[in-house]
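Researcher: Go.
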Amino acid sequence: MSSIAKAYVGARIHDGVSIHNDHALAIHADGSRSLIARRDVPDDCLLENLPGGIIAPGYVDLQVNGGGGVMFNDDQSVDTLRTIAEAHASIGTAALLPTLITDTADRTKSAIAAVKQAISEQVAGIVGIHLEGPHLSVARKGAHDPALIRPMTDADLAIVLDAAESLPNVMMTVAPESATNAQIRQMSDAGVIVSLGHTDADFDTCMAAFDAGASCVTHLFNAMSQLGNREPGLVGATLARGDIHAGLIADAIHVHPAVIRITLAAAQNNARIMLVTDAMATAGSHINDFVLNGRKVIRQDHRLTLQDGTLAGADLEMTRALSVMVNKAGDDVSDAIRRATATPRALLRGFEQCCPLLDRGLFVHHLTDDLSGLTRLGK
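Model: Structure:
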């Protein structure tokens, strides 16, 4: 008898990096997975024939503010994290960084403690934390509460460095106006993923921050200095570098598909452009409004806004982001899936040393050919 208990056939298979044709996804008796040629599937193996489509690893999302009707900013608890993770798993995300947007130091500490406890309790999908603020620029605050935005102090830095010692992954969005290059270097040296965002800094300042250790950009184009003919800003600095990862909210609202197309053509290394949802409480739920820092957020036509019209996160599932990338922005389907799997996963610690498809820390799902839906396999 073969050690292969089951094999999925009939679909193309994306291993997180590229697509394979005429292959099968083999599920072994011990739960491990392998990718084998279709002709090598044993005759005694249970087969599941899929109607075309693409088998792919679960998504990896580095910017998740909420889901399942709840927000991390409202309640920093394991129960909230479990609700968020389960909501995102239901729409295809296997690993995520719960994201605390600009808030008080006490809530930041509570958020870190909750994530630490969730990981200790092995809450599926929680792999670290993303602190988006409060060390940002008021000029590019977006939906962040300006009253809570402040420069990074030694005490703030100590909180982040301590978190980096106790959590597998810490991502920190800062603006160079509110965090010095020395602080960026200290965080980077400690293993923190330092990301630039919510900043009005000029090109040279952003390049210096990258040189100091910032390795990522938070929601490219949104809430940042734009690309101009005389001043390239953070957008220009990002596109000019080949060593920087950049998150992109591909909902055709935050960034126009034509701009995405131009970005992919212009970037020094577009393989480092990754997809994020910036999802809020609405993800995986049917609610139409919620409260963020005491302000009502309204859901309408795949758009989340404060009552003054300011965008407040995204009403986005990763599968729809793939559809926008492929069907509206002209990205190759293999590249688009990689942007939601292997590219963000490369920034994280704690995963198996294999391609995402074979990583038992990530589940596997089946995407329709038109990217209109997905089904989790083996659940």
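Model: The chain has two domains: 4-52, 57-358.
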